[in-house]
Write a structure and sequence with these properties.
- There is one protein chain.
- The chain folds into 3 domains: 132 residues, Tetrapyrrole methylase, N-terminal domain (Cobalt-precorrin-4 Transmethylase, domain 1); 112 residues, Tetrapyrrole methylase, C-terminal domain (Methyltransferase, Cobalt-precorrin-4 Transmethylase, Domain 2), CATH 3.30.950.10; 44 residues.
- Helix 10 crosses helix 11.
- The chain has 12 helices and 10 strands.
- It has 311 residues and is α/β, with parallel strands linked by helices.
- The chain is elongated, with a radius of gyration of 24 Å.
- A hairpin with a 7-residue loop joins strand 8 and strand 9.
- The termini are far apart.
- It has a 5-stranded parallel sheet, with helices on both faces. Strands 6-7-10-8-9 form a 5-stranded mixed sheet, covered by helices on one side.
């Protein structure tokens, strides 16, 4: 979209959004596009041209973004490495009666990006914090995952995790906990970690998931598969390992509790004699319980399940 077209958008923003009250000495959290520059709201454009200055995650990135919209404002860097100090600078500007906007590199601030500590500091000082909602990779991915009305036997709602821990042991523990979460789970992932993450999520077995790659951008891709198949899909094409990822793990289909409990009882009897994976496989076959739930339960409750050895 051309700068001239955005200039027309700014005029429309002033006309439509300008009638609302925008108090001074307030912090405005403004959502910006996650890829497509057209995904900016008229109210966001109005607020960005109205405020006295803009705090942002990366001044160079934000300068390019604002220039595309024809907006020029003083910028203040507030990122994960200086958020406490940056918050103090913002408080100083609010004390002077200024309106300050905060934007992250993409999407809605303070969700997985910086901003939460800034919000806490501003609120603690007694100043107002106002949201200007818009683009979010989380809601974008959820909307195309097709889970609006959870299927019978599945839990409703979702849990946002963000990025899994980078350390291997902590990551494995987090995935074990995910296996026990009946609701949908939303994860974010960087391209260089995607294949490793896919291999760890394979423990979820047949549980469906939706992959959003480069959402809203030119090479956007949405793929649905079972968790166990994700690694093969990532490895099948070099393009599948590029760009930013959002993963939606679909709600688990909850089997009857009696079936699961029966599987756990069988597993308790098998584990003293068999390796963990073998015992889980047999317990699932005997009881009809879900193998991945039994495996996750065994890992999560080591005091109850004590195998002689692990595969």
């Amino acid at each position: 979209m051309s700068t001239q077209a955005f200039a027309q958008g700014l005029a429309a923003a002033r006309s439509i959004a300008g009638t609302q009250d925008y108090p001074q000495s307030a912090l405005y959290l403004v959502a910006t596009p996650i890829g497509n520059l057209a995904d900016i709201s008229l109210r966001a454009l109005h607020v960005l041209q109205l405020v006295d200055r803009i705090a942002c995650e990366d001044t160079r990135h934000s300068q390019q973004l604002l220039r595309a919209y024809g907006i020029s404002k003083p910028l203040l860097a507030v990122h994960q490495h200086n958020e406490a100090q940056g918050a103090q600078a913002v408080l100083g500007y609010l004390q002077q009666g200024e309106r300050v906007a905060f934007i992250s590199d993409a999407g809605t601030p303070a969700i997985s990006d910086p901003g939460a500590r800034l919000v806490q500091a501003v609120r603690a000082a007694g100043w107002r914090v106002l949201p200007v909602p818009g683009a979010s990779s989380v809601t974008a991915a959820l909307s195309v995952a097709g889970m609006g009305g959870a299927a019978e036997g599945a839990s409703s709602g979702f849990v946002f995790i963000g990025f899994l821990p980078s350390k291997a042991a902590e990551c494995e523990q987090a995935v074990t906990q995910l296996a026990q979460e009946p609701r949908a789970v939303v994860l974010l992932e960087a391209p260089h970690r995607m294949l490793t993450t896919a291999k760890k999520l394979a423990v979820l077995g047949e549980r469906p998931l939706t992959v959003g790659r480069e959402l809203t951008k030119q090479y956007e891709q949405i793929h649905c598969c079972q968790a166990a198949q994700l690694g093969a899909w990532i490895s099948a094409d070099a393009q599948h390992q590029r760009g930013e990822f959002v993963l939606v793990i679909h709600p688990a289909m909850q089997e009857k509790d009696a079936t699961h409990e029966q599987g756990l009882r069988v597993l308790e009897h098998l584990l003293p004699e068999l390796p963990l994976k073998t015992a889980v496989r047999l317990a699932a076959a005997i009881s009809g319980a879900a193998r991945n739930r039994l495996y996750a339960a065994a890992l999560a409750h080591p005091t109850r399940f004590t195998p002689t050895r692990r595969e």
